[in-house]
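User: structure tokens for this one?
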Amino acid sequence: MAEPVPGGRWRVVRAEVDVDRRPLEQRIADIITADKLEGATIPQCF
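Assistant:
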């Protein structure tokens, strides 16, 4: 099966695989909240 993605492209979706399709920033924010990391410093990579 395939599903549309922004930009007019398509992505293959496998029915037996459960994938978190939320935006990355939302997933990271949920991890920070769940692990009580508010106020932690994120290292700069550049």
